[in-house]
């Protein structure tokens, strides 16, 4: 990795040579691992805007060019030609599967979709109006209490089983959270359906009558899963890695990832975005909202716009926009007002100097909510669906981290700006 290039750091006339590591793609990385030991200083980077916390071979993003690849394959090609479980295999194992490998993998995942029946009692402990993300954080954390034979992170076989269980069970958990909120019976997984079709079935079927999954809907669902499968070292993935660095079990680590994903700056943006589009309501109100987004004294931001890494089109947004058109066409909703507002908002924002200068483009969440709403999901289910899809990314990154011989507990340092040492003052003297 190192090519003999170094960076020179000078402090008070003393210099240190810091190795520079060159990645396959992307900017060089200054290796500061020995900086504190040798120079006695830390680096300061709140929000990790300039810090590579690990090395990885899974996903690459070129934010300036709007490129996203998984194991080298561009997301657009995967979205057009692959399907979610194949992408899961690719993320987990590093290569596209042979037909036999794919069949075996699909069989394994399908055989792990059911949950221990006892877990149903967990759901019953929640209020019916709980946000499904609250239910998911709780239930996913709790399943470590059920699958003791896959919580030893030092055993590669147990790690493998945990990975399969999480990918397989997450749709079941999300669908159960949805059914619970509706007060409807839980629908058990159906192993003759594809991953996406099974999820739709568990969400929308009722025991009283047959439910046939529309293949266009299943394809759109599968694409949404694929487009959210992994995204390099984002906040929730970094949370999973940090939680796992102490040796925590995989179910607890993924529960931590779900908690982080929930926030409106991350996975919660898809819910916030659709709510914003609905609030705008009609195209004539767009200028008012654009003005608010630009007003520094107003905390309002255009949800579904901007990204820490992409300073160009989010390539996932392009595919998502196509899917939105496809699904709404299928449903005969050509005049969908929310889609009209979204398209016009995008058009206006992309011509506005504020958005141009700050390089703010639509992200993956801008169109996904419109598709999910058209499919019949309430906004509260948008982020749980993101969590279902991202589980494979979290798990692949978790596996990669545990296989790394230089794994250390994550322990950021700080720039302390509090009081210096001072004497305790007894309460009667204050
Ligand atoms: N609307 C209006 N202004 C914005 C927006 C926005 N959506 N996003 C960023 N800005 C402005 C921000 O005010 C700042 O201006 P200034 O330099 O004058 O202070 C500048 O652009 C840079 O913003 P930042 O907050 O420093 O950038 P960041 O990289 O820390 O934040 C972000 C990235 C995604 C949190 C942010 O763009 C945002 O809040 N977007 C809306 C929420 C959203 O759609 N999130 C989903 C992200 S994609 C899915 C995922 O990863 O989960």
Characterization of this structure:
This protein is mainly alpha-helical and 430 residues long. It is built from 18 helices and 6 strands. The protein is 49% helix and 7% strand. β1 (2-11) and β2 (14-21) form a beta hairpin. The model has no long low-confidence stretch (mean pLDDT 94). The protein binds carboxymethyl coenzyme *A (CMC). Carboxymethyl coenzyme *A binds next to loops.
By DSSP, the count of extended strands is 6
Shape call:
globular
Strand content: 5-15%
What is the rounded distance between the termini? 59 Å
Averaged pLDDT, please? 94
Give a quick account of the main beta sheet: strands, pairing sense, barrel closure.
3 strands, antiparallel
Rg value: 23 Å
Which structural class best describes the helix and strand composition? mainly alpha
Number of helices: 18
Cofactors and ligands present?
carboxymethyl coenzyme *A
Give the strand line-up of the largest sheet: 1-2-3
> Low-confidence parts lasting 5 or more residues at pLDDT below 50?
none
Would you list the SSEs in sequence order as H and E? EEEHEEEHHHHHHHHHHHHHHHHH
Q: How much helicity do the residues have?
A: 40-55%
Oligomer: single chain
């Amino acid at each position: 990795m190192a090519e003999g290039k170094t960076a020179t750091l000078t402090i008070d006339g003393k210099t240190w040579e810091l190795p520079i590591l060159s990645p396959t793609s992307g900017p060089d990385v200054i290796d500061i691992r020995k900086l504190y030991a040798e120079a006695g200083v830390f680096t300061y980077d709140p929000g990790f805007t300039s810090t590579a916390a690990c090395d990885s071979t899974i996903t690459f993003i070129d934010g300036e060019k709007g490129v996203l690849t998984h194991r080298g394959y561009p997301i657009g090609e995967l979205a057009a030609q692959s399907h979610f479980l194949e992408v899961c295999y690719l993320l987990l194992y590093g290569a596209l599967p042979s037909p036999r490998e794919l069949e075996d993998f699909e069989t394994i995942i399908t055989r792990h979709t059911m949950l221990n029946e006892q877990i149903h009692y967990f759901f019953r402990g929640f209020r019916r109006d709980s946000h499904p993300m609250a239910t998911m954080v709780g239930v996913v954390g709790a399943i470590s209490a059920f699958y003791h034979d896959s919580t030893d992170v030092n055993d590669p076989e147990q790690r493998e089983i945990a990975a399969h269980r999480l990918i397989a069970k997450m749709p079941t958990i999300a669908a159960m959270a949805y059914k619970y909120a509706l007060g409807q019976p839980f629908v058990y997984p159906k192993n003759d359906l594809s991953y996406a079709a099974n999820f739709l079935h568990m969400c929308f079927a009722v025991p009283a009558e047959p439910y046939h999954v529309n293949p266009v809907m299943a394809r759109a669902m599968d694409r949404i899963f694929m487009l959210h499968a992994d995204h390099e070292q984002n906040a929730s993935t970094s949370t999973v890695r940090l939680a796992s660095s102490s040796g925590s079990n995989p179910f607890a680590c993924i529960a931590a990832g779900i908690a982080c994903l929930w926030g409106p700056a991350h996975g919660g943006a898809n819910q916030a975005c659709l709510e914003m589009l609905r609030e705008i309501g009609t195209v004539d109100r767009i200028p008012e909202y654009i003005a608010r987004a630009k007003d520094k004294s107003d905390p309002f931001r255009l949800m579904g716009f901007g990204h820490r890494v992409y300073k160009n089109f989010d390539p996932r947004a392009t595919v998502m926009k196509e899917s939105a058109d496809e699904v709404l066409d299928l449903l005969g909703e050509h005049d969908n007002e929310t889609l009209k507002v979204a398209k016009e908002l995008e058009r206006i924002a992309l011509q506005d100097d504020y958005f141009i200068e700050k390089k703010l483009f639509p992200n993956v969440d801008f169109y996904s909510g419109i598709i999910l709403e058209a499919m019949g999901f309430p906004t509260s289910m948008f982020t749980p669906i993101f969590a279902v899809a991202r589980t494979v990314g979290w798990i692949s990154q978790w596996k990669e981290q545990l296989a790394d011989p230089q794994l250390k507990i994550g322990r950021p340092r700080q720039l302390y700006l509090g009081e210096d040492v001072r004497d305790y003052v007894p309460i009667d003297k204050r």
